[in-house]
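User: Could you go from structure to sequence for me? I need the amino acid at each position, not a summary. Structure tokens:
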């Protein structure tokens, strides 16, 4: 027997945490009865419905997507803006993005229907590194970069980049291109770091997610993750590997 929220996550309904909320809100039935208790265990023979629609075990899929700017990292948007799943019209599984990228930030994001992997990769304790390239106003000096290297408080939490360096600078236009690696990637975290030292971000791209890089992908393009890559992600996230 397995916990209900785990079965829902495996079926691609939502991540385990989001599935828990769906259960608590009374949207789930097991064998025709509404279940709102977390930790409820179910058998393979049990019939599970979400909003009166039976769930089925989906084949788990994993995509690496190069999100363009001005695209929402969500399944749907109440303002009817373009979302990341709009780029996957032929995918029949109910995929969703792992974590988020800001609306005006481009770069790598994973989409999957593996709720467990999503839950682990977005949990702060696993500290998955993410590398960004930022074009900023002005050219930070060594003292300002040292402030970032030693750690800066963002929304009450200290953020210490693993790596930060200037890739290019243009004194005439007074801009700099800077690469940095952080672990958590919380909401607007990178932008707030540069605002702190007085160099607002003009453009921002996530160029690497853990060991995954953009490679030959162009904005709006995606590729399947290979089994070895999925297994490596699962190892990072403390999940069993596929054989």
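Assistant: Here is the amino acid at each position, in order:
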């Amino acid at each position: 027997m397995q916990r209900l929220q785990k079965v829902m996550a495996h079926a691609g309904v939502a991540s385990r945490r989001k599935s828990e909320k769906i259960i608590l809100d009374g949207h789930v039935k097991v064998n025709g009865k509404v279940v709102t208790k977390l930790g409820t265990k179910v058998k393979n023979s049990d019939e599970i419905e979400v909003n009166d629609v039976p769930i089925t075990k989906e084949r788990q899929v994993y995509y690496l997507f190069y999100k363009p700017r001005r695209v929402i990292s969500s399944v749907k948007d109440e303002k009817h803006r373009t979302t990341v799943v709009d780029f996957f019209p032929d995918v029949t599984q109910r995929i969703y993005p792992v974590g988020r990228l800001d609306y005006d930030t481009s770069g790598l994001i994973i989409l999957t229907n593996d709720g467990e992997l999503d839950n682990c990769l977005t949990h702060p304790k696993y500290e998955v590194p993410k590398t960004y390239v930022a074009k900023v106003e002005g050219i930070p000096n060594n003292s300002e970069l040292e402030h970032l290297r030693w750690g800066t408080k963002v929304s009450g939490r200290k953020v210490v980049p693993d790596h930060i360096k200037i890739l290019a600078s243009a004194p005439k236009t007074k801009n700099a291109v800077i690469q940095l690696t952080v672990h958590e990637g919380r909401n607007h975290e990178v932008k707030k770091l540069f605002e702190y030292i007085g160099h607002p971000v003009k453009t921002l791209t996530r160029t690497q997610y853990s060991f995954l890089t953009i490679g030959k992908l162009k904005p709006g393009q995606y590729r399947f993750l290979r089994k070895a890559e999925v297994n490596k992600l699962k190892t990072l996230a403390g999940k069993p590997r596929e054989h």
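One structural detail worth keeping in mind: The chain has a mean pLDDT of 89.
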